[in-house]
Write a structure and sequence with these properties.
about 250 residues, alpha/beta, Rossmann fold, six-stranded mixed β-sheet, four-stranded antiparallel β-sheet, 10 strands, globular
């Protein structure tokens, strides 16, 4: 697959990840256009998280490669990390730090200038309603608040591409709504969001395109409208069930 660097945010070429004898990701090929929210959907064990971890250079592929805004994940991992933000399913926050300290710590790691770091931190704390909790220990915060801190950490340096793994899983309605609002706002500025989720309604609301995975392989990819026409199903949940059942019957 030849990448058009003018239109592609991510190009994935024959990507494989094997753990011992288990094939977690099986020869995946994808091209993600620039400036959209792209959903990666699938049942548990489909390979979604493993795929995100390879694209964000946390895991090395067993075979194949990918390019993120033209930068090869194997040859230029440091450059890739500079232009992406990542929200893993496990936030990995430090309970003894406060939200303000967390943003300061990670901003310094990113090499952000102090004035810009302070301004971005203040803007994000206000945007996500955590100004009053800026000096509270993260260990005392609710799950929704912790998820917001992790999301602020991911977008602090204004990356071109965000990788989000189940960003609203287990959150209350208001917290999930705020995070979806931030995702929409991020994409409206021409940036990319790569979203892994089990929530079909959420994916339908947010995603311009989706890839549906099962057993490490991409079963289908396209806009929701294209998949509706192809499967003759009325919404993304019905499309998902139709395609996954079809794979199980093969």
């Amino acid at each position: 697959m030849e990448q058009d660097t003018m239109t592609s945010a991510i190009t994935i070429e024959n990507l494989v990840k094997v753990f011992d004898s288990f094939v977690a990701v099986d020869h995946v090929n994808l091209e993600v256009p620039r400036g959209i929210v792209f959903g990666i959907l699938g049942p548990n064990g489909a390979g979604k998280t493993t795929l995100l971890r390879m694209l964000s250079t946390v895991l090395k592929p067993s075979e194949g490669t990918a390019k993120v805004l033209g930068h090869d994940i194997l040859e230029e991992p440091i450059k890739v990390r500079e232009i992406i933000g990542v929200l893993p399913e496990d936030t990995g926050l430090y309970d003894r730090l406060t939200p303000a300290e967390t943003l300061l710590f990670y901003g310094k790691l990113r090499g952000m200038e102090s004035s810009n770091l302070f301004a971005r931190s203040e803007a994000l704390l206000t945007l996500l309603g955590l100004s009053e909790k800026r000096h509270a220990k993260i260990g005392t915060l609710s799950k929704g608040m912790k998820q917001k801190v992790a999301l602020m950490r991911a977008v602090l340096h204004e990356p071109e591409i965000l990788f989000l793994d189940e960003p609203t899983s287990g959150l209350d309605v208001m917290s999930a709504r705020e995070i979806r609002g931030l995702i929409k706002d991020w994409a409206s500025k021409g940036r990319n969001v790569i979203l892994s989720t089990h929530n079909m309604w959420e994916a339908q609301q947010l995603c311009s395109m989706v890839a549906i995975m099962d057993k490490g392989r991409v079963v289908s990819v396209g806009t929701i409208e294209e998949l509706e026409r192809m499967t003759r199903q009325r919404d993304l949940e019905e499309i998902f069930v139709h395609l996954i059942r079809g794979e199980a019957e093969r």
